Amino acid sequence: MASVDVGGVELTFACPRCAGAVTASIDAVRMLPVLDCPACGQRFGVDLDAFSDRVTEAEVAAKAARRKRRA
Ligand SMILES: [Zn+2]
User: Fold this and answer.
1) What percent helix, strand, coil does the chain show, rounded to 5?
2) Residue 64 Cα, ligand 1 centroid: separation in angstroms?
3) pLDDT mean by block of 10 residues, the chain; 71 residues
């Protein structure tokens, strides 16, 4: 299956301590699935199952956008 590059797509993750939004690119989370909350400083691990689902969603969206551009 041909894949699209979604590494630069940014996702937001909820901080488990303050529920603040933490933004990170897919590539960054693939490299290191640990984020630091800029609001409270909490360091937390990304839920990789949920992350995987969101990567799939981003790929589907990117493919749809590519088809749209070609049409
Ligand atoms: Zn926080």
Assistant:
1) 40, 25, 35
2) 34
3) 84 97 97 97 97 96 87 61
